[in-house]
Prior knowledge:
The complex is a heterodimer of chains A (233) and B (179). Chain A has 233 residues and is mainly alpha-helical.
Amino acid sequence: MSSIDLDKKLDLLRPSSDEAPLPDALEKLLAEDGPKPVRALYPPFLRLLAPLLVALVASLTFLLRKEMRPDAAWLIGLTSLARIGFGCFFMWLALRSGVPGREPSRRMLLVALAVGAVVALVTALLGDHYGALRQMDDHGPKCSVALFGASLLPLAAIYWMLIRSAVFQPLLSGALGGLSVAMVADAFLSVTCPISGVMHTLVYHTGGTVAFALLSGAVAYALRRLLFRRTQG
Amino acid sequence: MSDDSSAILRELMIRYQGGDSAAFRKLYSLLVPAMRGYLQTLVGSQLVDDVLQEAFIRIHRVRETYRDDAPVKPWIYAIARYTAIDRIRKQQRQRREIGDAELERFGDENRDPTTAIAIQQMWQLIDRLPESQREVLVLQRLGDLSIKEIADTLQTSEGAVKQKLHRAYNSLKGWLSEP
Lengths: 233, 179
Protein backbone atom coordinates (compact mmCIF):
# COMPACT_ATOMS: atom_id res chain seq x y z
CA MET A 1 0.00 0.00 0.00
CA SER A 2 1.60 3.28 -1.11
CA SER A 3 1.22 6.66 0.58
CA ILE A 4 -0.73 7.95 -2.43
CA ASP A 5 -3.28 5.10 -2.20
CA LEU A 6 -3.70 5.73 1.51
CA ASP A 7 -4.14 9.46 0.89
CA LYS A 8 -6.85 8.74 -1.68
CA LYS A 9 -8.68 6.44 0.70
CA LEU A 10 -8.45 8.95 3.54
CA ASP A 11 -9.68 11.73 1.25
CA LEU A 12 -12.92 9.79 0.85
CA LEU A 13 -13.64 10.52 4.50
CA ARG A 14 -13.77 14.28 3.98
CA PRO A 15 -17.31 15.46 4.60
CA SER A 16 -19.28 17.15 1.85
CA SER A 17 -19.51 20.92 2.13
CA ASP A 18 -23.29 21.19 2.02
CA GLU A 19 -24.80 24.14 3.83
CA ALA A 20 -25.73 23.06 7.36
CA PRO A 21 -28.66 24.97 8.87
CA LEU A 22 -28.47 26.06 12.49
CA PRO A 23 -30.32 23.80 14.92
CA ASP A 24 -33.30 25.30 16.74
CA ALA A 25 -31.45 25.71 20.04
CA LEU A 26 -28.78 27.85 18.39
CA GLU A 27 -31.36 29.88 16.46
CA LYS A 28 -33.07 30.55 19.78
CA LEU A 29 -29.78 31.56 21.39
CA LEU A 30 -29.05 34.03 18.59
CA ALA A 31 -32.59 35.42 18.74
CA GLU A 32 -32.32 35.95 22.50
CA ASP A 33 -29.13 38.02 22.54
CA GLY A 34 -28.71 39.43 19.11
CA PRO A 35 -25.87 38.29 19.16
CA LYS A 36 -24.53 41.14 21.25
CA PRO A 37 -21.21 42.53 20.04
CA VAL A 38 -18.33 41.57 22.32
CA ARG A 39 -14.82 42.93 22.70
CA ALA A 40 -12.04 40.37 22.36
CA LEU A 41 -10.08 39.74 25.55
CA TYR A 42 -6.73 41.46 25.89
CA PRO A 43 -3.73 39.11 25.71
CA PRO A 44 -2.71 37.37 28.96
CA PHE A 45 0.45 39.45 29.42
CA LEU A 46 -1.70 42.60 29.61
CA ARG A 47 -4.45 41.03 31.71
CA LEU A 48 -1.95 39.86 34.31
CA LEU A 49 -1.13 43.48 35.17
CA ALA A 50 -4.30 43.88 37.26
CA PRO A 51 -3.83 40.82 39.52
CA LEU A 52 -0.11 41.53 39.71
CA LEU A 53 -0.80 45.06 40.92
CA VAL A 54 -3.25 43.72 43.52
CA ALA A 55 -0.66 41.12 44.59
CA LEU A 56 2.06 43.73 44.98
CA VAL A 57 -0.16 46.15 46.90
CA ALA A 58 -1.56 43.39 49.13
CA SER A 59 1.88 42.02 49.89
CA LEU A 60 3.34 45.45 50.59
CA THR A 61 0.52 46.49 52.93
CA PHE A 62 0.10 43.11 54.59
CA LEU A 63 3.70 42.04 55.03
CA LEU A 64 6.03 45.01 54.94
CA ARG A 65 4.61 46.53 58.11
CA LYS A 66 6.90 44.10 59.87
CA GLU A 67 10.56 44.65 60.55
CA MET A 68 12.82 43.67 57.68
CA ARG A 69 15.49 41.02 58.00
CA PRO A 70 19.06 42.25 58.52
CA ASP A 71 20.06 40.64 55.25
CA ALA A 72 16.90 41.78 53.47
CA ALA A 73 18.65 44.05 50.98
CA TRP A 74 20.59 41.09 49.68
CA LEU A 75 17.49 38.94 49.54
CA ILE A 76 15.43 41.56 47.73
CA GLY A 77 18.17 41.81 45.17
CA LEU A 78 18.06 38.19 44.15
CA THR A 79 15.75 35.62 45.67
CA SER A 80 12.67 37.79 46.01
CA LEU A 81 12.97 39.08 42.47
CA ALA A 82 13.27 35.49 41.23
CA ARG A 83 10.08 34.57 43.09
CA ILE A 84 8.21 37.58 41.73
CA GLY A 85 9.40 36.76 38.23
CA PHE A 86 8.19 33.19 38.52
CA GLY A 87 4.94 34.41 40.07
CA CYS A 88 4.34 36.58 36.99
CA PHE A 89 5.13 33.65 34.70
CA PHE A 90 2.65 31.35 36.46
CA MET A 91 0.07 34.16 36.42
CA TRP A 92 0.54 34.34 32.65
CA LEU A 93 0.11 30.56 32.40
CA ALA A 94 -3.04 30.72 34.56
CA LEU A 95 -4.59 33.36 32.29
CA ARG A 96 -3.57 31.45 29.16
CA SER A 97 -5.30 28.37 30.56
CA GLY A 98 -8.56 30.30 30.14
CA VAL A 99 -8.15 30.71 26.37
CA PRO A 100 -9.13 27.57 24.40
CA GLY A 101 -6.39 26.41 22.04
CA ARG A 102 -3.80 28.59 23.81
CA GLU A 103 -3.54 26.62 27.07
CA PRO A 104 -0.06 25.73 28.30
CA SER A 105 1.01 22.32 27.04
CA ARG A 106 1.83 19.53 29.46
CA ARG A 107 5.49 19.84 28.55
CA MET A 108 5.49 23.59 29.23
CA LEU A 109 3.86 22.99 32.62
CA LEU A 110 6.31 20.26 33.58
CA VAL A 111 9.33 22.37 32.60
CA ALA A 112 7.93 25.43 34.45
CA LEU A 113 7.24 23.40 37.60
CA ALA A 114 10.66 21.74 37.49
CA VAL A 115 12.46 25.08 37.06
CA GLY A 116 10.23 26.60 39.77
CA ALA A 117 11.21 23.79 42.17
CA VAL A 118 14.91 24.34 41.45
CA VAL A 119 14.52 28.09 41.98
CA ALA A 120 12.71 27.44 45.30
CA LEU A 121 15.53 25.16 46.45
CA VAL A 122 18.31 27.50 45.33
CA THR A 123 16.68 30.56 46.92
CA ALA A 124 16.21 28.59 50.16
CA LEU A 125 19.90 27.65 50.15
CA LEU A 126 21.04 31.15 49.24
CA GLY A 127 18.94 32.66 52.01
CA ASP A 128 20.43 30.30 54.58
CA HIS A 129 23.61 32.28 55.21
CA TYR A 130 22.73 34.36 58.24
CA GLY A 131 23.93 32.11 61.06
CA ALA A 132 22.06 33.65 63.99
CA LEU A 133 18.68 33.17 62.31
CA ARG A 134 18.93 29.54 61.33
CA GLN A 135 17.04 27.90 64.17
CA MET A 136 13.59 26.44 63.53
CA ASP A 137 11.05 27.65 66.07
CA ASP A 138 7.33 28.03 66.42
CA HIS A 139 7.37 30.92 63.98
CA GLY A 140 6.79 28.58 61.05
CA PRO A 141 2.98 28.29 61.06
CA LYS A 142 2.73 32.09 61.37
CA CYS A 143 4.62 32.38 58.09
CA SER A 144 2.20 30.06 56.32
CA VAL A 145 -0.80 31.91 57.76
CA ALA A 146 0.68 35.26 56.65
CA LEU A 147 1.34 33.79 53.20
CA PHE A 148 -2.28 32.66 52.89
CA GLY A 149 -3.56 36.01 54.17
CA ALA A 150 -1.51 38.06 51.73
CA SER A 151 -2.52 35.82 48.82
CA LEU A 152 -6.30 35.90 49.23
CA LEU A 153 -7.06 39.27 47.66
CA PRO A 154 -4.76 38.73 44.65
CA LEU A 155 -6.34 35.29 44.21
CA ALA A 156 -9.76 36.95 44.03
CA ALA A 157 -8.37 39.20 41.27
CA ILE A 158 -7.06 36.17 39.36
CA TYR A 159 -10.40 34.38 39.76
CA TRP A 160 -12.17 37.48 38.47
CA MET A 161 -10.00 37.36 35.35
CA LEU A 162 -10.61 33.64 34.94
CA ILE A 163 -14.37 34.01 35.33
CA ARG A 164 -14.29 36.42 32.41
CA SER A 165 -12.37 33.97 30.20
CA ALA A 166 -13.14 30.39 29.13
CA VAL A 167 -11.99 28.01 31.84
CA PHE A 168 -12.48 24.38 30.86
CA GLN A 169 -9.90 22.98 33.31
CA PRO A 170 -10.80 24.65 36.62
CA LEU A 171 -8.41 22.55 38.69
CA LEU A 172 -5.43 23.56 36.55
CA SER A 173 -6.42 27.23 36.19
CA GLY A 174 -7.15 27.55 39.91
CA ALA A 175 -3.90 25.86 40.93
CA LEU A 176 -1.79 27.98 38.57
CA GLY A 177 -3.54 31.14 39.80
CA GLY A 178 -2.98 30.17 43.45
CA LEU A 179 0.65 29.28 42.82
CA SER A 180 1.34 32.59 41.10
CA VAL A 181 -0.08 34.88 43.80
CA ALA A 182 1.43 32.82 46.62
CA MET A 183 4.87 33.09 44.97
CA VAL A 184 4.58 36.87 44.83
CA ALA A 185 3.41 36.98 48.46
CA ASP A 186 6.29 34.72 49.50
CA ALA A 187 8.78 37.06 47.83
CA PHE A 188 7.73 39.78 50.27
CA LEU A 189 7.23 37.44 53.22
CA SER A 190 10.82 36.25 52.90
CA VAL A 191 12.02 39.81 53.39
CA THR A 192 10.37 40.09 56.80
CA CYS A 193 10.68 36.52 58.06
CA PRO A 194 13.31 36.31 60.83
CA ILE A 195 14.11 32.63 60.15
CA SER A 196 16.46 31.83 57.30
CA GLY A 197 16.91 28.06 57.79
CA VAL A 198 16.52 25.88 54.70
CA MET A 199 13.97 23.59 56.34
CA HIS A 200 11.90 26.53 57.55
CA THR A 201 11.92 28.09 54.07
CA LEU A 202 11.11 24.84 52.28
CA VAL A 203 8.40 23.70 54.71
CA TYR A 204 6.59 26.90 55.63
CA HIS A 205 7.29 29.15 52.64
CA THR A 206 7.61 26.80 49.65
CA GLY A 207 5.31 24.22 51.24
CA GLY A 208 2.81 26.96 52.10
CA THR A 209 2.95 28.18 48.50
CA VAL A 210 2.29 24.71 47.13
CA ALA A 211 -0.51 24.12 49.68
CA PHE A 212 -2.14 27.41 48.68
CA ALA A 213 -1.94 26.42 45.00
CA LEU A 214 -3.56 23.04 45.68
CA LEU A 215 -6.25 24.61 47.81
CA SER A 216 -6.97 27.19 45.12
CA GLY A 217 -7.24 24.45 42.49
CA ALA A 218 -9.59 22.46 44.71
CA VAL A 219 -11.78 25.51 45.34
CA ALA A 220 -11.94 26.32 41.61
CA TYR A 221 -12.90 22.71 40.88
CA ALA A 222 -15.47 22.49 43.65
CA LEU A 223 -17.08 25.78 42.63
CA ARG A 224 -16.70 25.26 38.88
CA ARG A 225 -20.43 25.30 38.14
CA LEU A 226 -20.83 28.52 40.07
CA LEU A 227 -17.70 30.34 38.88
CA PHE A 228 -17.31 29.08 35.34
CA ARG A 229 -20.88 28.39 34.35
CA ARG A 230 -20.33 29.51 30.75
CA THR A 231 -18.01 26.57 30.16
CA GLN A 232 -19.09 24.06 32.78
CA GLY A 233 -22.68 23.55 31.57
CA MET B 1 -5.32 24.13 5.85
CA SER B 2 -4.89 26.88 3.27
CA ASP B 3 -4.12 30.45 4.24
CA ASP B 4 -7.20 31.57 2.33
CA SER B 5 -9.67 29.44 4.28
CA SER B 6 -7.90 30.33 7.52
CA ALA B 7 -8.28 34.03 6.68
CA ILE B 8 -11.95 33.55 5.81
CA LEU B 9 -12.64 31.84 9.15
CA ARG B 10 -10.80 34.61 11.00
CA GLU B 11 -12.77 37.29 9.18
CA LEU B 12 -16.05 35.51 9.96
CA MET B 13 -15.07 35.15 13.61
CA ILE B 14 -14.27 38.86 13.92
CA ARG B 15 -17.60 39.77 12.32
CA TYR B 16 -19.35 37.35 14.67
CA GLN B 17 -17.70 38.99 17.68
CA GLY B 18 -18.95 42.29 16.28
CA GLY B 19 -22.55 41.06 16.46
CA ASP B 20 -23.06 39.68 12.94
CA SER B 21 -25.32 36.62 13.24
CA ALA B 22 -24.92 35.85 9.52
CA ALA B 23 -21.19 35.37 10.15
CA PHE B 24 -22.02 32.86 12.89
CA ARG B 25 -24.32 30.95 10.54
CA LYS B 26 -21.59 30.85 7.89
CA LEU B 27 -18.99 29.70 10.43
CA TYR B 28 -21.35 26.99 11.59
CA SER B 29 -22.01 25.74 8.10
CA LEU B 30 -18.31 25.75 7.18
CA LEU B 31 -17.12 23.97 10.30
CA VAL B 32 -19.90 21.64 11.31
CA PRO B 33 -19.41 18.76 8.83
CA ALA B 34 -15.80 18.13 9.86
CA MET B 35 -16.52 18.84 13.53
CA ARG B 36 -19.31 16.31 13.51
CA GLY B 37 -16.89 13.70 12.14
CA TYR B 38 -14.32 14.57 14.79
CA LEU B 39 -16.79 14.54 17.66
CA GLN B 40 -18.27 11.30 16.43
CA THR B 41 -14.90 9.62 16.91
CA LEU B 42 -14.91 10.90 20.50
CA VAL B 43 -18.49 10.36 21.68
CA GLY B 44 -20.17 8.10 19.15
CA SER B 45 -23.11 8.65 16.84
CA GLN B 46 -25.87 8.69 19.43
CA LEU B 47 -24.47 11.69 21.26
CA VAL B 48 -22.75 13.56 18.48
CA ASP B 49 -25.54 15.97 17.59
CA ASP B 50 -26.17 16.82 21.23
CA VAL B 51 -22.48 17.42 21.87
CA LEU B 52 -22.11 19.45 18.68
CA GLN B 53 -24.98 21.68 19.71
CA GLU B 54 -23.63 22.05 23.24
CA ALA B 55 -20.17 22.89 21.82
CA PHE B 56 -21.61 25.71 19.71
CA ILE B 57 -23.60 27.03 22.67
CA ARG B 58 -20.33 27.22 24.63
CA ILE B 59 -18.55 28.77 21.65
CA HIS B 60 -21.25 31.45 21.60
CA ARG B 61 -20.98 32.09 25.35
CA VAL B 62 -17.20 32.55 25.31
CA ARG B 63 -16.81 34.13 21.87
CA GLU B 64 -14.90 37.09 23.29
CA THR B 65 -12.03 34.76 24.26
CA TYR B 66 -11.09 34.30 20.60
CA ARG B 67 -8.20 36.60 19.67
CA ASP B 68 -7.82 37.65 16.07
CA ASP B 69 -4.05 37.05 16.08
CA ALA B 70 -4.67 33.29 16.32
CA PRO B 71 -6.20 30.75 13.95
CA VAL B 72 -9.87 29.94 14.55
CA LYS B 73 -9.77 26.18 14.32
CA PRO B 74 -7.67 25.35 17.41
CA TRP B 75 -9.94 27.64 19.47
CA ILE B 76 -13.13 26.02 18.18
CA TYR B 77 -11.87 22.44 18.20
CA ALA B 78 -10.50 22.83 21.72
CA ILE B 79 -13.95 23.91 22.95
CA ALA B 80 -15.57 21.03 21.05
CA ARG B 81 -13.09 18.60 22.58
CA TYR B 82 -13.70 19.84 26.14
CA THR B 83 -17.44 19.54 25.56
CA ALA B 84 -17.01 15.97 24.36
CA ILE B 85 -14.80 15.09 27.33
CA ASP B 86 -17.37 16.56 29.73
CA ARG B 87 -20.09 14.50 28.10
CA ILE B 88 -18.03 11.32 28.18
CA ARG B 89 -17.36 11.84 31.87
CA LYS B 90 -21.01 12.50 32.47
CA GLN B 91 -22.16 9.44 30.63
CA GLN B 92 -19.28 7.27 31.83
CA ARG B 93 -19.46 5.43 28.62
CA GLN B 94 -16.81 3.83 26.50
CA ARG B 95 -16.16 4.65 22.90
CA ARG B 96 -18.47 2.89 20.55
CA GLU B 97 -17.73 0.65 17.62
CA ILE B 98 -18.54 2.29 14.33
CA GLY B 99 -21.53 0.49 12.88
CA ASP B 100 -23.55 0.59 9.72
CA ALA B 101 -25.91 3.14 11.15
CA GLU B 102 -23.09 5.66 11.38
CA LEU B 103 -22.06 5.32 7.78
CA GLU B 104 -24.64 7.81 6.64
CA ARG B 105 -23.32 10.55 8.89
CA PHE B 106 -19.65 9.98 8.29
CA GLY B 107 -19.83 9.76 4.58
CA ASP B 108 -22.09 11.26 2.00
CA GLU B 109 -25.37 9.47 1.44
CA ASN B 110 -25.20 10.32 -2.25
CA ARG B 111 -21.96 8.40 -2.85
CA ASP B 112 -22.04 5.18 -4.80
CA PRO B 113 -22.13 1.88 -2.87
CA THR B 114 -18.51 0.98 -3.67
CA THR B 115 -17.27 4.29 -2.26
CA ALA B 116 -19.58 3.90 0.72
CA ILE B 117 -18.10 0.49 1.49
CA ALA B 118 -14.56 1.88 1.13
CA ILE B 119 -15.42 4.67 3.57
CA GLN B 120 -16.85 2.16 6.02
CA GLN B 121 -13.72 0.01 5.77
CA MET B 122 -11.48 3.03 6.35
CA TRP B 123 -13.43 3.98 9.45
CA GLN B 124 -13.18 0.45 10.76
CA LEU B 125 -9.41 0.61 10.34
CA ILE B 126 -9.19 4.06 11.93
CA ASP B 127 -11.21 2.72 14.82
CA ARG B 128 -8.48 0.14 15.45
CA LEU B 129 -5.92 2.89 16.07
CA PRO B 130 -5.10 3.91 19.65
CA GLU B 131 -7.30 6.83 20.71
CA SER B 132 -4.53 9.44 20.69
CA GLN B 133 -3.45 8.49 17.14
CA ARG B 134 -7.02 8.36 15.92
CA GLU B 135 -7.69 11.84 17.29
CA VAL B 136 -4.75 13.52 15.55
CA LEU B 137 -5.49 11.69 12.30
CA VAL B 138 -9.13 12.77 12.29
CA LEU B 139 -8.22 16.36 13.14
CA GLN B 140 -5.78 16.41 10.23
CA ARG B 141 -7.86 14.60 7.61
CA LEU B 142 -11.38 15.70 8.50
CA GLY B 143 -10.75 18.97 10.28
CA ASP B 144 -7.96 20.01 7.89
CA LEU B 145 -5.91 21.31 10.81
CA SER B 146 -2.18 21.90 10.46
CA ILE B 147 0.32 20.16 12.76
CA LYS B 148 0.66 23.37 14.81
CA GLU B 149 -3.12 23.76 15.07
CA ILE B 150 -3.53 20.14 16.21
CA ALA B 151 -0.81 20.66 18.83
CA ASP B 152 -2.58 23.79 20.10
CA THR B 153 -5.94 22.03 20.18
CA LEU B 154 -4.61 19.06 22.14
CA GLN B 155 -2.18 21.03 24.36
CA THR B 156 0.76 19.02 23.18
CA SER B 157 3.92 19.58 21.14
CA GLU B 158 4.22 19.54 17.35
CA GLY B 159 6.78 16.75 17.66
CA ALA B 160 4.32 14.55 19.56
CA VAL B 161 1.64 15.19 16.92
CA LYS B 162 4.03 14.29 14.08
CA GLN B 163 5.04 11.11 15.88
CA LYS B 164 1.43 10.02 16.41
CA LEU B 165 0.53 10.77 12.79
CA HIS B 166 3.54 8.82 11.56
CA ARG B 167 2.55 5.81 13.65
CA ALA B 168 -1.09 6.07 12.57
CA TYR B 169 -0.19 6.17 8.88
CA ASN B 170 2.19 3.25 9.27
CA SER B 171 -0.47 1.18 11.01
CA LEU B 172 -3.07 2.01 8.37
CA LYS B 173 -0.67 1.17 5.54
CA GLY B 174 0.16 -2.13 7.22
CA TRP B 175 -3.49 -3.07 7.70
CA LEU B 176 -4.41 -2.10 4.15
CA SER B 177 -1.58 -4.24 2.79
CA GLU B 178 -2.83 -7.31 4.62
CA PRO B 179 -4.40 -9.83 2.24
